[in-house]
Amino acid sequence: MISVKNAIGFDDYAVGVAWDYNAESPTLRRWFMAGGFEQTIDFDANPFNHLEPWKSMVRQNQNDAGTVTAKFGDAGYAEDGSNGQVTVPINSHYYRRWRDTANGRMIMAVSPKGINGFKLHPIGINNSGKLIPKANISAFEGVAQKISDLSYYEDADDADPVTLDDELYMLASVAGYKPKSLQNLPEFRLMCNNRGSTWHQYRMVDHFAIQLLNYIEFASLNSQGSLGQGIVSKASGSYNKAEKTDSNHGAWSYSLDTPSYGVTTDGVHAVVYRGIENPWGNIWKWCDNCIIKDDGYYMGIGVSPNDTGSGYQFIGEKPLGWDGYVYNYFTNILDHPDLEYAFFPSNITGGGSGKFFCDYHYSYYPGRTVAPHVGGRWYDTLDVGVGFFSFYSVPATSYRSVSGRLIQLPN
Question: For residues 34 and 11, what is the distance between their CA atoms, to the nearest angstrom?
Answer without folding.
Answer: 8
